[in-house]
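Q: Hi! Curious about what RNA-binding protein looks like structurally. Here's the sequence.
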Amino acid sequence: MSSKIYVGNLPYTVTDSILESNFAEYGGVSSAKIMMDRDTGRSKGFGFVEMVSEEVAQAAISGLNGRSVDGRSIVVNMARPREEGRSSGGYRDKGYTSSTRKDVGYGNGGFGGGRY
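A: Let's find out. The predicted structure is below.
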């Protein structure tokens, strides 16, 4: 079973291949991915590494957490699963919505609509 690791506070110059080679020192790496900004194409400063086993992942976390990379102390720990329901709008099973707030929108009082 593979284990996913979160790597944060990375310098913006770190690439997928650099990240993979740093973690490969501790064992087999299934994948390494730096998260990129969709608009600018620049690194967001964090990424995820998937290791081949839990033991290899723990060894990498112990060895790399707090290490200085280009003057930045990186954060390395087990990745948490994505949380559901943190949407600020968009498509849902009931259609498109803009907000779940009840006090915003039309028809909630006074002339001209809701409170802003």
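A: A fun detail: The first strand starts at residue 3 and ends at 8.
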